[in-house]
Task: structure prediction
Amino acid sequence: MATYYTPHATKEILNSHQAHWVKKEGNYILNEAISFDIETTSMYQDEQKRAFMYVWMLDIFDCTIIGRTWQEFVSTINTIVIHFNLANVKRKAIIYVHNLAYEFQFIRKWFKWHKVFSLSRRKPLYALTRTGIEFRCSYRLSGYKLEKVGELVGIEKLTGHFDYSKIRHSKTPLTTEEINYCIHDVKIVCAYIRQKMKEDNNNISLLPLTKTGYVRRYVREYTLRGKNRCFYKNAIRSLTLETEEYLMAKRAFAGGYTHASVIHSGIECEDVTSFDFSSSYPTVLIAEKYPMTKGRKIEDISEEEFYDLMSRDDLCCIFTITLTDVHQLFPCESYLSESRCRDIENSIINNGRIVKADSLTTDITNVDFNIIREVYKFNLSKIGHLYVYERYYLPTSFVECILHFYNVKTQLKDIEDKKTEYMNGKENLNALFGMCVTDIVRELIEYDTDAGWIPPKKLTEEEYNEFVSNQLDKENEKKGRFLYYLWGVFCTAFARRNLWTGIKECKSDYIYSDTDSVKILNYEKHKEYFDSYNKEILSKLETALNYHKLPISLIYPKNIKGKTKPLGIWDFDGHYKRFKAVRAKSYIYQYDDGTFGMTVAGLCKRDRTKPITPDTQLDAIDYLLQNGDPIEQFKGYSTEDEEEPMKIPKEYTGKLTHTYIDEPFSIIVEDYKGIKCAVHEKSCIHLEPTSFKMTLTEAYSKYLRGVHQNIYV
Result:
């Protein structure tokens, strides 16, 4: 058995180790890796959901303390506070928790809080007690599940030792294997934090709150402190936003285009080819030109002048328009998003996309408008607020950052045992785009020790505009500002335009798209388009790099195997013997070798390259294979349909229903060994495996039937 200590040994552990401190902004932070974790039971009692902790672990100075009650944990924390004099306002100790959102719900009423920082309700990034203990989320820092973190630091996460269906409480004896399992979990987190500290000058205060913080810091330092810093600072200083302009830009921002072709939705297709863009967002950030001047507001513009603006390639525009008599001309797909429009009258909707409408109003970019005018017929009823910006390439130093992260990611591509690291590198690369569209004005979620989570105050339109104006003034004057919100708005617009070149080319052969990929029929018929597109995008990238005076080789990096991976091209992503899509983020396929794959939002996918062990979480495909042909069973229906949708039992979904219990309770619990114990929790989360049913909305199901019966054209 691995060595561990009881809570009574806390003082002895602290006295026998030399503490190290680092200073940041006048405060002293304990420069040690500390981690905390709990194991819990979820159960029903008298038909009420209950959940409670039965063991906790705290690793400090590489010594693991194990306790069984919250009173022991609070006492241990108080011992640490007193020993290090953390109640002093200029001192604190950071304790990392792998998925703080879970543990915080259990501990939040056991402490008084100085500050809880959260961007969404119940999901804190950190929580600082009034006595100088700061709990931080190591999952948000790493981006990896604990098992993968263990691989990175060389500590195997033990599995198979806990049957979570068994009821345990604080008096339930734990086996040697179960205790080792508990110890390993906190050891993994501490080892990871020490590794990250080593990479950051052995200084815990330099660790960011999230993994994208590393990307943000890299770009900030490179652009604001690099060789072109004066140019970059001056350029950014001029790129400010006004209240009306910013709110319009937020409404105009849309993410990736994801949809299933209504022609093929729910229908099995054979001989399907998949293509995806090689780093779509990074490509357009380099290849395209973006707003690089302060916005100029244009009022009282005529329709003729408006269309002249839309045809210019030296300008970017955002504007509000009202369209009437809107009819889709392109029968295979719908572009306008219902959620991005307002005042919609008498519409037909294709799973969130507008097929027709008597009238609608939307905020949009000129890039999107030029797609809409190709695929819809409409009358331009009204042109509202309109802002115009001159277009130029993004600053060279920012482009160099993009190329740096693309090359780092490429080195890991197609390496079988580096799939997770490759996905993390891909996320770091795309974080460059995500940083641009991080909301400048966000109403932070507040937490109060007594009141708990406090919903944002409801503001009148006038109050909200004033709030936005104040926040924008602060942002515009911020010395460390290095990004511009509109870069992100136009980045996704350019990416959607590129994706739609493929959708428009393939027409009825187009089956499904997701942000940077398409699934199509009859590839040979469209091969010329893909080849032509690839030549064109590489030419645009080379032109951009010539402008920046950067080596062309940077868009042709090689992976570890020496294979060149050009940036931006349509890349072959696989061939499917059979394929079926039902809706966005819901499709299944069979490879030529007979194996199956599936993507359904909310369902887990196991790694099918690894052998099945007793610990393997079986997935939906495993269940479908037991019952016949998975593709035939892959169906989505509404309640109006006679047929049943695909249903996956809870044992195969990997989905857990989270029920937040905010009221305290005290109960007597009998564990799986027959031992009884009084249990008290102040707040908790009940976890329960849940089944899955692939239902469609009534409106979408009705529209599908209409299309397949030739009611709609």
